[in-house]
């Protein structure tokens, strides 16, 4: 089974609807069933959610020929990458491999693969057939949460991601979900650990999905998320722990110099992060609701709102 995110299908002309923020990546989901037991995911083997959804996004089904043809005829300049979200199963991995081989013969476009990969041989195989980046999810930012929500060994996963990032420079990505129950300090520690190996890291806000074990858990507050966005933005820029004051594990204050203040007033820390040309429109939010990840540069009104949501007195720094 091959599915496109609704936004991708709209952008490629396969779905007759409108979208106010065009995706800059074509998002493709491959596989019929997932063997994972992730407590937050609609695709989990334990979930009763609709299987045409991932997070809050709907994914209609198309053939590989329809997808290839639409990409060949695509004459806009928005989509610059394909990102394949593979289910965790032998069937899905095989289907992903076949699709990458097929699409690379048809179209010259960078391809990323996000999948449950647990050995170097599989990474080498997927890179060898045309994928230029492999995403290996970590999701939870501490051992207890990871093993409760994901059901796997936390240290092994972190070590594997770091090891693969060193073996395959600039080829390994991961993502961290904010709001699963972790503290800011735990995100700081994990993010810093992964950045030392040059892992590309995307931030997501936890999104409750009906039919999952975590359907009744709230999204993180926007203040908490904004502080994590600023903290991780600063880590990316080389700032260290001494720039952050934590109280009971949560950010109480952040030391801001003139350069970071300038970036805040341009809205940079609040823009979406991760792989190049990946903007994930409305993955964590609905249009006209609270925006966690801005999928484009912020306007003045949005910058002012984000600074207010951050709830740090930037005039005293």
UniProtKB/TrEMBL annotation:
Keyword field: Iron, Iron-sulfur, Metal-binding, S-adenosyl-L-methionine
Top-level taxon in the UniProt lineage: Bacteria
PROSITE patterns: RADICAL_SAM (PS51918)
CDD domains: Radical_SAM
Domain Radical SAM core: 20-240
GO MF annotation, one: transferase activity
Protein name per its UniProtKB record: Radical SAM protein
UniProt-listed SUPFAM superfamilies: Radical SAM enzymes
Signal sequence interval, chain numbering: none
């Amino acid at each position: 089974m091959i599915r496109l995110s609704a936004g991708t299908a709209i952008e490629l002309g396969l779905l007759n609807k409108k979208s106010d923020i065009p995706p800059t990546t074509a998002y493709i989901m491959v596989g019929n069933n997932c063997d994972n037991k992730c407590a937050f995911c609609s695709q989990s083997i334990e979930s009763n959610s609709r299987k045409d959804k991932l997070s809050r996004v709907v994914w209609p089904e198309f053939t590989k020929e329809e997808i290839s043809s639409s990409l060949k005829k695509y004459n806009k300049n928005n989509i610059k990458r394909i990102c394949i979200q593979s289910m965790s199963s032998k069937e899905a991995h095989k289907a992903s491999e076949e699709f990458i081989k097929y699409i690379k013969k048809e179209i010259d476009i960078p391809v990323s693969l996000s999948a449950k990969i647990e050995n170097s041989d599989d990474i080498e195989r997927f890179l060898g057939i045309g994928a230029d980046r492999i995403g290996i999810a970590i999701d939870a930012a501490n051992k207890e949460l990871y093993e409760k929500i994901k059901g796997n060994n936390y240290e092994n996963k972190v070590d594997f991601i770091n090891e693969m990032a060193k073996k395959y420079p600039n080829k390994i990505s991961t993502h961290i979900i904010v709001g699963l129950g972790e503290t800011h300090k735990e995100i700081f520690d994990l993010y810093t650990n992964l950045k030392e190996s040059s892992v590309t890291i995307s931030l997501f806000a936890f999104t409750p999905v009906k039919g999952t074990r975590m359907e009744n858990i709230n999204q993180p507050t926007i203040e908490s998320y904004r502080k994590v966005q600023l903290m991780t933005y600063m880590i990316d820029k080389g700032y260290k722990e001494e720039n952050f004051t934590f109280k009971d594990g949560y950010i109480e204050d952040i030391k801001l110099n003139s350069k970071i203040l300038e970036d805040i007033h341009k809205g940079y820390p609040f823009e979406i992060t991760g792989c190049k040309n990946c903007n994930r429109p409305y993955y964590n939010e609905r249009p006209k609701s609270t925006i966690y990840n801005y999928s484009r540069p912020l306007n003045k009104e949005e910058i002012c709102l984000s600074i207010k949501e951050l709830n740090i007195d930037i005039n005293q720094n």
